[in-house]
Amino acid sequence: MIRVTRAVTAAAALLALAAASPGAAHAQPDPGPLSRTNQAKEDGNLPEGWRLTGEGAGTELIWTSPGPVPMGDARVEFYAGDRLLGRPEATPDGRAYRLKTDGARIGPAAELRVMAGGRRLDAGANAPGDAGRLSPSAPRETPPSARLEPQLPANPVDPGVSGAHRTVTGEYTLPSVRLPGFAAPVEMRATVVGPVGAPGKRPLALFLHGRHATCFSAAGEVTGEWPCTAGTKPIPSHQGYLRAQKLLASQGYVTVSIAANGINGQDHAAEDGGAQARSSLVRQHLARWADWAAKPKGAPAAVRATSPADLSRVLLVGHSRGGEGVNRAALDSLSRPPADQDGYRGPVRWTIRGNVLIGPTVFGQNPVPDVPSATLLPGCDGDVSDLQGQIYVDGTRGVSRGTALHSAVYMIGANHNFFNSEWTPGQAKAPADDDFWSDETPDPVCTPGAKTRLTATQQQAAGATYIAAAARLFVAGDDRVRPLLDGTGRRAPSADPARVLTHAVGAHRTPALLPDPSVTVTGGGRLCAQIDPDPARACLPPDGVGQSPHFASWEASPEPGRDAIALNWSRAGGAVTVRPARPVSLAGSEALALRVIVPPNSTGTELDVAVVDASGRRAGLGRARVDGLPGTERTASYWGREIRVPLSAAARAGLDLKRVKALELTPRTGSGRAWLMDAWGWRPGTPAVRAAALPRVDIGRLTVDEGDSGTRTYRVPVRVSGQGSGQVRVFVTQPDTGEVTSRTVTVRQGSGGIDVPFTVRGNTRYGNDVSREVFVKAVRGAVVGSHRGGVTARNDDAMPAVTVTPVAADVTEGKPLTWRLTLSEAADADISAGVEFLPVAAGRSELSTADVDRAWLEGNFGEAPEPAVPLSAMDMGALSVYVPAGETAVEVSVPTVADAAREPAESLRARLITYDESWETVPGPEFTGTVRDAS
Q: If you average pLDDT over residues 489-506, what whole number do you get?
């Protein structure tokens, strides 16, 4: 396959080419619009670092960072405005990212963005390679000074206090395992910390780290390869949770932290980011622990040294992509994944009582509704900086019974890495970094030293405390720690000085209001879309400052099914009334709990809350104050604060709480903005959780050869397993335009509810692979495993051979050197290549940058070197060449300039560079040119 050799400056994306035709001598320099398709009329040059190769279905969009992008958990994604173009493939050096666009309309060049976890990588004062960390857009303004959140009242029970048990630490290493889709085996290695002499069998807590560099050398170099090569050794990320493990062990828990470098080094090509592989690895370890519980003598020494484990009481703790992995493991423990995707096929001999998810990814946005969870959201996360893990709370609403508590734990001043000591500078064995990025303007919330920013040891203490809180509530059933997790507003002194805020859904909550198109909003409010490029519909303007974890993007924009209520007022006293489609019951509830977002750094927003029953009786419930979180444009601080107002006033007023028809919110401050996420009837307590029997949907991928003739219709593989019926929302992309359509579908085992055909037309010409993509999300009464798949029609025809012949290879200065690139036959995709300049033979004078047109240099390489250098000495990459689809030849020219100096003939030597299917360089033919003095 012919490819561009390496990414260069933006303007070099488009070489001066013209399709061979009568009278065509050479093409004029063309800096080029982003999209040159006939249907698109976008203007403007590509921004710095971007390039575009090819045309139509063969277009590839490439971005190059000035330095390597560090390996992290968030996915790198290309956007045009707020529209996701796709997830590019990284080159091995971590600098260049390439995306096939399949001919889809891209959009205006100025709207191109490279994003990872909500932060922008392609703009800013310092580039992703600077200081080894990612960087955001340059600040638009100096943000206000951060306000330190007032300290909450202490909870009577503090789970961060060490227990009475003596602990023991050890390691085990077992034979590696094979996982589907991964070429190299994955290690089975773990650190065990447990109590000594604790009575009976003890609950088990399993930790899974996230995606980090995999190997390091004594010289301080880190890589993402697997297995580690000679001279390097694995980074011990699994040893980074010892503080939390030792705390839990002292309280009577057996803990095990497992290594996953073998997944981290290979998950770049996994469609789900490695979630299924991580689930398989977790369950492989749990299966071993189940074996050892039955036959302790066969256990490794590190396991025998601690108290025996009780596999009926398991807590999973996952960090970053490890969080998504343990979420999938909990799902896979309730309903089996497709066998061809799974790396564990044995029986389930354990029960997952809860999950703790630390700064997690949620690429699938498919949380497990019936397993309780606590999601830690680090306010200064510089990796998964959109705090998309909020979806582990919001995404469970209305899906199942709603008895499982799902808590969001917002930790102000915590970054992503420091929860793991092996990712923390000064503590780690391998090189480590603070993931929160810096530039010339210090961030008042998150720059180290800011009063709101936590140190590494403070963050680790707070993290361990809240992990222990989840264990105590989900596994031990101690309701006394619930106020630390459910939005009641209590603190654990062991986590001081950290400011930790929480809200929750589930447990003893009954739905009062879940915004959707069926609700009616009057007064100074409107139903807004969480994900929509249209500012008139979006809850937050797409180009606004700051982010909301609640509005984390997914696969589609706009995305139906995700709404909130936006309030905007300029004077006090104007009520906003929200009416659900039918009356709701608040009977049995003690309070009305609302999750309300106000702008970061705002203080004193006051809202009067009232309800109206079906007969029209109205009761004011009280006044609530809501303050914004400390935040800047670099943080995701538009986050819902839980407020509660007692329902006692409504009862005294004689309202029928079984039939409440409206909620009223009346601002009492002069002006402001707020967003209502939802409202619930609330009462204390933690009910027992019993998982519902729900149908499970998994989307697969079918890859077929296009064939030489005729048409064939294939269908996207869909597997529906489990019991009952439920609803999912199905999104389908159009192969030619990239447009996404969606519909709600009822699914049940054995049904054909999701039917997506794709017709493939065979031919004998080389072309691109073509695919139809499908992704799915649970709506009600169903769960989703593999959320994305499709049908890919693979090109099965050989690429045409390319030859280079001179058109004008011996010219006088001032005329262009020109060669013709000819294909052996036309192709259905652009055929692209690179041209690199080589040193000429000894004793000959080489054409320099002073001998060619300056505008051509600037248009193709971004600059004209000063002082002049030989063309072969330019360190700015290769020229991009392409033969448009359907054509068989192009001409490429190097325009020379005449000067008054008398000089000998000057030579040019060049080579065509192509790439094979593995992106390895394939040297092509060499060609030469001569420029003679005009005088």
A: 98
